[in-house]
Structures are given as structure tokens and as C-alpha cells.
Amino acid sequence: MKLHSIFFTLLFLTTSFLSAQEGVISGTINDGEFNDVLPFANVLIKGTTKGATSDFDGKYQIDIEPGTYTVVFSFLGYETKEITGVVVTAGKETTIDVTLNPASNQLDEVVVTTSVTQNTEASVLNLQKRSVALLDGLSIQSIKKTGANDIASAVRNVPGVSVQNGKFVYVRGLGDRYTKSVLNGMDIPGLDPDRNTLQLDIFPTNILDNILVVKSSTADLPADFTGGVIDIVTKDLPTRPEYSVTAGVSYNSSMHFNDNYLSYEGSGTDFLGFDDGLRDLPIAQSTNIPIPAQDGVTVRQLTRRFTQTMAAQQEQSFMDFNFGFTAGNQFNLNEEGDLRLGYLASFSYRNTTEYFEDYIDGQVFRKDPQFSENELITDRTQVGDLGVNNVLWNALAGLSLKSPLSKYKFNVLHIQNGESNAALLIQENFNVNSNLNKRDALVYTERSITNGLLSGYHTNEDASWSVEWKFSPTLSRIYDKDFRVAPFRINQNGTFTISPSESGDPTRIWRDLQEINLPGKLDITRKHSLFSRDAKFKFGGAYTFKNREFVVDQFSFPVQSRGGNFSLTFEGDADRILAPESIYALDTQQGTYVRRDSNISDTFDSDMTIWAGYLSEEFRLTDRFNAILGLRFEKFDLVYTGESQVRGTFDNEKILDKADFFPSANFIYDLNEDANRKVRVSYSRTTARPSFKEASIAEIFDPITSTFFIGNIDLQPTYINNFDVRYESYGEGTNFFAVSGFYKTFQDPIELSFIREARGQFIPLNLGDATVFGAELEFRRNLGFIPGWRNFNVNLNFSLIESQQNFSEDEREAREDNLREGETLADNRQLQGQSPMLLNFGLDYDNPENGWQAGIFYNVQGETLQIVGNADIPDVFTQPFHNLNLNVSKSFGKEQQSKISLRFSNILNDEIESFYKSFRATDQVFSRRFPGQAISLSYSLQF
Amino acid sequence: MMAIAALTMVSCGDDDGPSEPAATCSDGIQNQGETGVDCGGPNCQPCTVEPTCTDGIQNGDEEGVDCGGSCPNSCDTSGVVEVTTNITSDVTWTSNNIYELQGRIAVTNGATLTIEPGTIIKAFAGTGANASVLIVARGAQLNAVGTASSPIIFTSIADNIELGQTAGTNLNENDRGLWGGLIVLGNAPVSLDGDAESAQIEGIPVTDPNGLYGGSDPDDSSGNLQYISIRHGGALIGEGNEINGLTLGGVGSGTIIDNIEVVANVDDGIEFFGGNVDASNLFVWAQGDDAIDIDQAYSGTITNVVVVQGDISDHAFEIDGPEGSLQGAFFLTDATLFGLDANEADGEVADYRDNAQGTTRNVLVTGFTGIGDGLQLSDVELDNDGVANNYTNGLLVFENWEVVLPTGVTTSAEIFDDRSTIGSTFEADAATFSSAVDNNGAATVGADTSAFSWTYSNAKAGLGF
């Protein structure tokens, strides 16, 4: 194991690096004028002769004896900043990142003095302040305060961000189609065949440096930016030795140590997040499966290949637990200390168990055929118990090499997730069918992402030119391995029957989605002078290749009988369906046999390529008026391979070929000399492209929802015009206030639409134009103005969003034909998945002196259109979930290296539910589950 | 360390299935439960049967099922016509060929498919969008007129029936779901949920325009369907959703439908989705769901029906009403329903549901399950308040039912059951509109069974019609 020996060598080198007597002050100096670092600035320890100059990356480092110092940062034409109370400990590193702002009056020297603590907290805010684009950042520090352990729950605290199903992140309530998630600025594949975005709950916070939510586009960002970009920035390489271990447990009273928890026999490696082969596809796609009447010997052999387990079993659930570690360091490769190698390794493991008792999902209610009747008619009820075990681990390893004028970075990230579900459901049908069914459903989903990042940054002696390049291949796979459903009809006398015509055949499905992304980009920046002020010209190009392959293998298990009620009952025991004695036997010609149910139109293989080039200029018209103008060009091609009976065969056919220009303009006007109050105005044109699955001829039956997805090969991209205006006021420290307005027009938005004539079939369509506009308010304040409340901060943000989506012709007619008496049809409706309101509130206490930290956080979003109704089926709306969490932690030990945290989730014990809503009718439940209340305890140690 | 180690791990398994058991049916050893060397038991072909040329199995040196090799019949495929694409112009299928239906085949708008008497159509296996079905689209004509001695036969590719025969030997009434079914769609009015004028027939992707049914022409004609036997169909097209033996969607009164037999279909035997075509001499045996199913305000007349329930059959009649605001009532007369007498679960006489409207007259109910230990009484139900209301308002009418009383039942009225919450006089009235008879011979109502002497079922089950 070569890697192991390299690792030990690194450990050895790092421990011998720092001399025992001295400590280190290091950090990054940022340019307050541009969203950039400030190279060649001076750093001096006041009262000593020690000092340093920042490198091209804005980084500096000073070795010094232990003590308390004041550090002075200066640069010609910029204000000078003094940081007081900097404590240096032997063998330790103290980090100070500062932002220097241009001195408005160049004759006087401006000195700004702040304390260390204020400075650290303000660093993300500084990034936000300096950015030309409209963005909101979330630093790892503030994520830690909320106690969130995955990105999806952390990002809730960003204004205008909402999270659906605890996984999918929407910016400004725009659906997942309009929110792009990137990793270190580069495209990564999604993990859900039905979504356009990436699920963020699988990204743990321990790999994070910060999360940036960019809301207005600039030319260097991809044009499919659409409504917003969430950039997951992984940890940068440390400048000091950094080792930590964490471990935690979480207990949920309604879910854990519960004897009714549902599970099923998994493989020996389920605890590692993948299946060891137990659930492998037993019959290759090329194998022809005969029917028993043709070849009983073969069909019997093939049927016997399937494992017998079909039933959900009760067992006691365990609690959640997690652990992880990180290690990182940097060391010099030469005597001058200007050639440095850094490394970072982190690992985390999380095992969570959820149990939902009496959870309701997929119920159906209909409008009465009599238009005078407002109350809804019950068509299907579905209630049951669900057990979910989730194993998630990730490993990140990175190396960086830094020379005086270049920096290289190499990162590898792997995320592995295995999710095992077992459910027992009772379904009653009243209308379209009339029956009572029981079904055992077992699902195992394996997800993995492997991402590599190789990047370089180069500059010249005076840093007037810089070149940055990145190449970041990703391989992702989502594999539903052996999804099993065993439906039994419950007869009136309480016995069970397998009744294909009423409840369907027993079914097993394998669905495999693999995607490769190969994005690369090059950015070149030239600092120059325009209108006798500093300006920055940026240009570059990017290329992205994506390939997605989707394969379905579906089998059902009819039971052949020869009179009587032979074996059709199995006494309701799903495990008996494929028991050896139940399998089709040649002597009796009776029993269960396998049949292939997948189709040619289930499967597809698509490629996307995007070529991009851009130019942008960032400049100042006056001292206070900053502008960035840009133009991006993108060439987009989509190539499709697939088959359908009606629409024929596509073999590597180009189905989309678009070349478009995307202009953008961002303006910032400083309302005062200190640049503490700003007005930002921006415009950009962006696009939203159809997904692989949507722009296809695929016709995929989903047995989970009993719906047919019909691809639309004629789908066109959506074009969006984005307008933003924002007023910002930066106070002392982290005090901040902002109010923004936005307006977006969508040309040909894509939405998954129903087809009136074919219930249960859905097709993506370019609908009539849509408009979205809204307002956001953000407020952060330290409560130090109240005596004794110096350590308290309050954080509030609130968004109101109005969306207007025109109806398709089918939808309008279907709605008109089903209006109740006295009901009128509006001109439009809200966008699917669009939250009309978002509110986040947090109050936190942070006392670095005694190590106590506490915070209470509240989050809610307004009633959201979840499912667009179809004719007599009304719209379904997700109800507000009032999420209140409390987090308390105490750091202790020498230098507060140890920390114990306690977190209470869902204090209000709210439930997650969706309702059917119809004119003057009582709301009816579509789905409901109780997440319960959890207490989590965790411990971390840094050394 | 774990991080680095984990990164080097690759979690891909291979896709090969588990290895085959060592014992096979050709290893020359009497193992794996065999009753002889390499024969018998659950795993191998029966021992008692030497490969013959009539066993319905491709064995011995046969090149196909019971043909080729040393068998007298050669597997000559000259009489086989593969049907793989839609029929878009006038075509005739002749009785000197076997037509192999491979996938979803539509006779499209404007085209006529003529099928000669005695023609055999064998359909491939397949489910979902790939299920082998014959769709007669709106505006197309099916001219399939068989005779009592030479019916037109739709069956599975697995059926060993040969040219000139009316039955194979290797399949029986329990072999279901081996192919799709026959779907006839027209332009007659249909009462749909949400008041759409037309709908896509279940399970056909909407990208296929040939799956639409319903319209505004009650006089529409889809052609002539006479003396047709449909066997072993009902492939799955969605969860709990299989193709019926004969599906009639929005078929108008210009169409002629008589002498139809459906055997061993997974779902319903014959289902009427709206429309107003008249149909007579219908025979359904051993269906998986309901024998005669009426929906969406079908408003034609059905005359002379025999249903013989099989072991997994549900209702003999399942009757629904209009779904939308368009109203319409059926008229069903002269039916004999043969039940299973020891049903432990379902297998009922009739279920009237969801706003059902129409008249059921002259029905003989015989051989159904009565009351006893572990037995489930087969009944005639009014399923909900809407139906009970229709009954009370005279929209749903029952006349002249006779019942051969099942075990433990003392009056004919006992099998009539109003399950609504609002109640009606249905159960009380049953004493008037129904009566008990001692045996089938004593019945004064029911089907004229002599009309079904031509059927495969009559011969296969020895019904003596």
C-alpha cells in the first residue's frame, strides 16, 4: 500500500516542521476594491522588526515567539489596518484574514483598528461586501453554530434559500431546474434521475470551507446559472498543522430503540454504504426469459436466481451515530520557504436510522362529478410504516504546491451513500378500483460520487497578469438495486390473495444511472488602468462534456396455478412468494415464475457538450461607482441514443444545437466614503436547459408512483432575463442590513405537465411564459448595544416571492371543465415548487472567553405548490414546516481544544405534510409524516 | 488513513448472477429431486413422457415446438406472417397463414384490416409499452368475421395450435397473461373524469395517437367482429393494470359485435369504456378479474352472456357509471353466470359501483359460493351511496333474476347486498325481482347456451352446450 507510506511520511515531516518555541501568525489579505486577494501587501508586528509581504495569493506567514501582539497591515493607496490582541502560542498558528480598502483620500493615512474576534467573524461578510456579483455566503463558523451536519440543512440559513425534502436546495424558491449546484466552481452530476439539481444532504459540512449562494450572474459563470448558483467550496489547504477528531450520537424518541422498526436482510457491507453483491442483477439484460409453457426448465432456473426476501421484518432500531477526522499541514520544500507543499485529508462516517409510523403518502382525492359539490371524494388512502437506514461516508484528500508565482492543487473527493428502506403499506382504493391491498416494499439505493480537481494558478512578477485553470472530472452513479414490491389483496374475510388485476404482480427492479462530467476551464485576468483608475479585464473559456446512461431492468413474478386457490395466498407472507417450494415446478406446472417487464424505451444514453468563451471588464467610473460588464458565448449540443416503438430509433443523433450570447451587467454605487452603504443593480441573461431525461424519447413507467414519464425530444431551452436591485448597509463587525428586489422573466419555461387524455402520464413541455418577482430582507445585528448582551447576535432574513406561470392549453381546459359553481379560473398559477415566503431567524450567544456557545434557529417556508392538479384531481400544496432547533456547546481544555455540543431538533414537534386543496372544500391529506424530536450529542477535539 | 484506504476501494461488483447449481437435467445423475435420471421432479421435464411430437414442448431433437427433427411436422414457416409494423392501408389476413403479432400493432385511421374465417393470430409475450396488442384505432375498421366452424383465434405464441385447428393442446384456462389483447377504439361518446372528450386507453403511452378513444359520433362504426376467440391474454401494462381480452373504447352503434369468446385473460374478459355499441353472444371463462366490465356511461345493449368463473376470477359483472357529466345507461339481458362453489376469497356475482346506471334483466346465477366455514358468500352488491341513490331513483334496475341457492343460503334475496351508508330498498326488493330455482334445468331465465356450442371452452371444459 504505497499510499499508506506516503501518508506516514507526510505525518513525520509535519511533526518535525515547527520549532517548539515559536508560534506562527498567518492569513490572507483581501482587496477591498475587487473581489480578489491583495498581493505584495506589508505585514508588520508592531513593536518588533518582524514582518512579511503577502504573496500573489494574498497569503502571508510570520514565525514569532509566543506572546500577545498587534499586527499592522498596509499597502500603498489603501487604508492601514491594525489588529490588536493577537495571541500567539508556542507551536501553534494564529490565523488573521483581513480586507484592506482603498484609501479614499490618498493624502491622509487611514488606520483602522479592530480586535481579532471581530475580524474573524466578519470575514465572510467581507467577501460578500467586496463581491461585484450579488452573493450570500455561509462560513463554516456559522454552519457550526447551527449544528447542521450536512449542507442541505446548513444552507437553509441563507436568505431566499429553501430546502425541499431535506435534500434539494432552491434559490429564491425557484424550482430545482433553476438552481445550479457546483463543486469548487465546477459542474457535478446530479444523483437523481428525475431532478436537474444535486441533492445536497449527502455533502457533509466537514469538507467545507464555505458555501456561496450567487444570485446575479457574471460572464465568468456558466450560462445555465439560471436563478442562482450554490457553490460548495471544499476546505482550502491549511497553513498550519490541523488535526481533529469528532464523534457524535443522536437519539430520536419516536424512531430509535423502537421494536416496530422495519428492515430487511441486507448484505455484509451495507454498513459501509454499498452492497457486496447480494443484490446484484441476477439475469443479464441480454438473457431471454421464456414463459413456462415454452421452456419450463429455463424459467425455473432463472426464477431460482432471485433471493427469497420480499417481506419487511420488524426489528429494534438503533440510534444515529457519526465520527470523523481531518488532518492537514503544510511544510517548506526549500530553505527560502517560498516553495511549500500542503496536504489535507478528511474522513467522516454517518449512520442514521429513521422510522415513520403511520405515515401517509400518495393518497388520491377527486373533485365531485357534480359541479355543485365542493367536497372532495376519497379515491385512494395509503398508510403504513417505513424504516430507513442511511449510511454515508466521504473521504477527501488533497495536495497543494505553492511556488512564488504559481500554485497547484490536486483534490480527490469520494462520497458513498447506501440507503435501505423497508415499508409495509395498506392501500385502499374506492373509485377507479375498489379494493384493499397490503404491500411490502424494500428498496436499496446506492449512490456514489468520485470527483477529482486539478487546478493551477499562475501570475507574473507584479501580479498584473494571472491565469487560472481547472479540470474537474466526476463520475457519479445512482443504482436502485433490487427494489422489491409484494402486493397482496386483502379479502373481505381477512385472507390474502395475489391478485394481479387488482393490486399488481410481485415486482423487482434494478435502475442504474451513471454519469460522467468532464469540465475544464481557463480564466485569464489582466489588471490595468481605465479612466485613470484600476481596472480588471478578464477573459477565458470553458468546455464541459457530460454523458449519462440510464438502464432499467424490471421483472415481475406471476403465479401460475392449476385450479383451486393454490399458492396465490401464501397466507400473506411475502417471503413465501419466492421460497424454493413456491417456484414453478415442472412436475406440477404450478408456482411463481419470473417475467421481464422492462422495455426498450426505458433505456437511454445521452451526451452534452458545452463550449464557452467570455470577456468581462471590471472598472470604476468614479471613486464610488464600480461596474462590471461582460459577455459570454455558449455553444450547447445534446446528442441522444435511444429507442421507442412509436418514435423510432435515435443513434447518436444531435437533437439540440444552440449557440447563444449571454450579456451581463453589474453596477455598485457606494453611498458613502467608507463604502459601508451600497446600492447594487444588475442584469443578466441566463438559460435553463432540458435535462437528459426530458429531452429524450424515453417512455419510462415508474412503479413507485405508478406514472409514465414521456420524454419530449422537441424540448427547447428556457431563456431567462434577471434583474436585481439591492441596498446594503455594513455596520460594525458583523452588523449588516440589506433589502433587495428581483424580477425575472422566463421565455418557454419547462415544466413536467400532465396529459389530459392519459391519466398518470407526464411529459415535460415548454409552457407559456412565466414571471417571478420578489423582495428579500436580511438583518444581522450584534446586541452589544444592550448592556450585558455583547455576546448575542440576532440574524433574520425574510423573502416574499410571487410567481406567475401561464397555463398550457390542456391545463387551462381541464381546469375550466372542473370549476365548482361560483369558482373562477385565475389567469395563471404559481410555479411548481415555488415557495411564496421564506423566513429564517436565529439568535446566538458566543462567548470565546468561557467557551460557551448557544443558538436558537427557526426556519419556515410558505405553502408551496407541490403537484399540479389534473382535471378532477386538485392541486397539492406542501404545508409550512415550523422548524425550531436549539444548539448549545462548550469548549474547554487548554486552549479550548475540546468541544461538547448538544442539539435539540424540531422543538415544536411539527409534522411534514401536504394537502389537496380545492375551492371551498375541506383540505385532504396527500402525505404526512412525523419527523419526531431528536437530541444529538457530539464531541470534537482539535490538536 | 481510513480516508486514503477508502479511496482506493472500488465498490463495483460484477453483473454476473449467482452460479448455476451443479445438478442439471442433463448430467446423467438422478439428483435434485428427479424421479428418474435427468427427468421428473420440480426441475426437469416429466419422466413418464418421452418426448413426443404432440407434447407441446420443444424437446427431443425438435427444431420448434413439436415440429422439425424426427417429428412428422416440419417447422415450415412459410405459413407464418410476422406483423411488426402498424397497418396503415387496407390489408387482409388469410386463413392459410399464422399471423405473429410482435409488439403493439395499430390499424390506423382510414385503414381496414380484414381477417378471414379460421385465421390464427399468435402474439408475442411482452409487457408494458412492449405488450403485443392489436389496436383498431379511431377511424380504422376491423372486419373480422369468423364462422362457428372456423372462428378467428387470437392466442399466444406459446400455443401449439396449428393451421386448420381450433385448439392447441399445451395450454389451458390457467395459462394467462401470455400476450396483450384486442383493443377496438371508436369515436362514440364517453363520459370521462373531468369531462374530457377523449382519453388515452390505459397503458398506451400518449406518444401513440392510436391509443385515443371517445368522440361525438354515436353512429360510428369500427367494423364487424363475429366469431372471435381470444385466449391467454392480459399482459401487464401498469401496476394492477392489465389489458382486457376485448377492450371496447368509445365504440359506436355502427359496429357489429357478436359471438365473442374470451378465455384465461388476466384482467377483465370484455370491458366497455363508454360508447353505445350493441353486443350479443358473449362468453367469458376463467378471467383473472371481472368477466363483463362496464364503465364511462356505456349505453348499448348486451344480449346473451355466459360467464364461467375460474379460480382467481373476481366478479362476473363489474358495472360502473358515468365519470363525467355525460350520462348514459346500459341494458344487459339474458345471462347465465356459473360460479365457483367453494371460494375462500373473492369471486362474486356482481358489483354495481360508482354511479352505475342501467338495467340488468333475466339473469341466472348458479354454482356460486355460499355460507360455510372459511367461505365467502358470493353476492350482488351495491357498492356505495351513489349507486344506492341511483337504485332509489330508478336509474339502476334489476328484473327477473333466478338463483340456484348456494350452500347455507335459504332465499334468493340473501345474495343481494346493499353496502351503502344511506341504504335503499334493494335488499327488500330482491325478494320480488329474484327467485330461487332448484337447478339450472328449472331456470326460466338466463342465456341461450346453444349459441356457444362453437366455443373452445365448450369443448375444453366439456360444458355440453
From TrEMBL, chain A:
Q: Which InterPro entries match?
A: Beta-barrel_TonB, Beta-barrel_TonB_sf, CarboxyPept-like_regulatory, Plug_dom, Plug_dom_sf
In this protein, which residues make up the domain named TonB-dependent receptor-like beta-barrel? 477-907
Which keywords does this Swiss-Prot/TrEMBL entry list?
Cell outer membrane, Membrane, Receptor, Signal, TonB box
Compartment list: Cell outer membrane
Q: Which Pfam families does the UniProt record give? A: CarbopepD_reg_2, Plug, TonB_dep_Rec_b-barrel
> Which residues does the UniProt record annotate as the domain TonB-dependent receptor plug?
138-229
| Bias kind Basic and acidic residues: ranges | 812-823
Residue ranges of the region described as Disordered: 807-827
Signal peptide location in the record?
1-20
Q: Which family does it belong to?
A: Belongs to the TonB-dependent receptor family.
Give the protein's recorded name: TonB-dependent receptor
Q: Which organism is it from?
A: Robiginitalea marina
